[in-house]
Design brief:
The chain is an alpha/beta fold. It is about 30% helix and about 20% strand.
Length: about 160
């Protein structure tokens, strides 16, 4: 029976100082658990995206490319839905790296096409909801007392 569990917030060793797992290990474990898909969301970068995409497809796991974007008003996970989303994700990360005054809601107002946005911050979600397609804005619910658990996903069984 195939699992429709998709971890949506995974960091690899490309998330400097926060992630330790090599891409090969993450993809291998996803295959062992029978995951149909998984998202790589390293912090403020896409350094491992191409390698992850290739490894996951070769392992029969659908790769979802994304990034955890940090911002002064709260962070969010951005997941690319298509090529336009990946292109916009690249633009957002570039702005995040180059501008000291980077503000995620302003950037997403301009570059939201093809992206799903997941955030734990109700304040950020409120700011984003005024300028974003609400069908692609998701509020993450965190369990109290489980701050160390960074795994989030949507699960089901077929």
């Amino acid at each position: 029976m195939a699992s429709y569990c998709a971890p949506l917030a995974l960091r690899s060793n490309f998330s400097l100082l926060t992630g330790t797992a090599p891409l090969e290990s993450l993809v291998r474990r996803a295959g062992e658990f029978g995951l149909g898909a998984m998202a790589l969301t390293d912090v403020d970068n896409l350094y491992g995206a191409v390698e992850f995409y290739t490894l996951a497809r070769d392992a029969g796991v659908k790769p979802v490319l994304g990034a955890e974007i940090t911002s002064r008003g709260g962070g969010a996970f951005l997941l690319a839905r298509d090529l336009a989303g990946y292109s916009n994700l690249c633009r957002i990360i570039t702005r995040r790296k180059l501008r000291r005054d980077f503000h995620l809601p302003e950037c997403l107002a301009e570059f939201q096409e093809g992206l799903h946005v997941l955030t734990e911050s109700t304040r950020l979600a409120g700011q984003l909801s005024t300028n974003m397609n609400k069908d692609r804005l998701w509020l993450l619910l965190a369990s109290p007392g489980r701050a160390a658990a960074r795994w989030r996903g949507i699960c089901g069984r077929a």
